[in-house]
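Appendix B: complex inputs.
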Amino acid sequence: MTAAVETFGLVKRYRKVNALRGLDLTVPAGTVCGFLGPNGAGKTSTMRILMGLSRPTAGSARVLGAPVGGDGLAIRSRVGYLGQDPSFYPRFRVRRVLQFAARRYLAGPRREIEDRVDETLEQVGLADRAKRRVKALSGGERQRLGIGQAVIGRPELLILDEPSVGLDPEGRFQVLSLIDSLRDQMTVFYSSHILDDVQRIADHVVILDRGRVIDQGPMDHFLGSGARYRVALDGKTDADPAGSLQNLPWVSKVSRVGDANWDVAVTDRTAAENELLAALAGQHGSAVTELRPLVQSLEDIYMAAVEAGDSEEVGHDG
Amino acid sequence: MTAEPASLSRIETNHPFRGIGGMLGVELRVWFPWRVLLLTIAGLGIYATIYIPWRISGVKQLGALFLWSMALWLIFLLFATISLSEGTVLGDIERGTASWLVGMPIGRPAVIAAKAAASAAGVSAAVYIVGGVLYPLFEAASREGVTRFRVDELTEVTSAPIGKWGVYVTLPEAGQYFAILTAIALLGVFLVAVMIALGSMIRSRTAVFGMGLACFAALMVGWLIARDALAVSPVGLVTAVTEGLQTKPIELAVPAAATVASSLALVALATWNFGRRELS
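Resulting structure:
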């Protein structure tokens, strides 16, 4: 799979603050990639460097195969970008913003450009707001306008910096639905610290903390690994399956969570689904009353990854 | 990926001035029509505030009307240029509009060049519109029978101290008048370039405004104390204006060329600074 974005040891230092500390990330082409990280992790710094708005202190990056640096016009012709808290000319009307953006990317007859503007207005749900001034839009409408101006040139890569931050639930839903609708048209690389949003629409995840990538991969890699199952026995005996389960090669941890309940963490979901019930059967004559996978959210994985990063940091610092 | 319709194509040219046409359109709308109209009304207002007492006084000295109208208009215009231009670059950076623009395929040099060209066009338009409207009014005033007076007679109307110069005032010929307007417009353009250069270097609009005023003051002080030494500079244009208003022959070409060259150098400096600037 080719990469839409790659960074190699990217470093960004603002006076005494190290925003990025050797960032190596890959965004595969054709994916919706969530760029996760707490506030201050370096997400915005990374995106600004990719767009040529900021220069790296060290390291390099490639966007759509082209090295980032210099004016970056060749890259920006093929990339749509929405910065955090987007700002347009306040005196512009919605249609004018899209017309202006369209003419920066596209050449062709005026009628065709206007058709594209109409199409984009429909796509971002702002057709009935086309004559409004930008300053009269709500936060959600402004974000959708921002996405509209970013996609109007049909870019190969769309970079969105916190597109759903600060929006009410309805606004967030609209923005996420819009991003979801772009899935098959372009690579989408978007940053967020809202884990639910990323889990809902991303198929690839990069987790960033304190200027470093702490994990990255397809969503399945995150949600499919480290699965956990809840096991309940009938409680009529004092059976404890922990000992025997721990001996199985695909079981990583067994924790008792009640009188007759255990959480079994596994490293191989397929093996667990094929063999876990058999392994539990005949545990000192107990009946298995419950066996179900525990839904592991991206939040669980994210917190675990960040905590692991913290421990490593302490280890390195120490 | 979605294919473009056959008639629409992605723009592939990537020169540093890509997007300058669109940017120029946007920036011209900043100046036309409202700012230019505001400057025009102000210029005509200055004339009216001098003309009304001129009519009432019955003294009807052309010098009182012409010299004071043009001198005050020059000072007002240059001050207004500084005020209106202090946010030309910094305003977009602070508002975040610059990031939006540069996030699209628009060259950074195109942004600065468009701002400089549109501001220069706006200031120049205001100068020529006001000057063009005033000239027939000055002519009409001079046809009332008063065409040549000692400036020291102005003191009867204005209490101004310039009577000691003892110069005589007539209305310049149209060609000379046009040259004076050109000198004023070029001074405005020079200050626009100064403000754009300052805006690309400094992060505070107040500081940009203050330094712009300091530059204006330096121009005037330079004219007062070293006008001959600074003849090949924008100070030479101030000399051209003041001497032109007194219907003396003026040398415009050299200071005009020096001012255009300085303005271009300042815009080039602004382009270089803006090209390196981190945008948020």
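Chain B has a mean pLDDT of 88.
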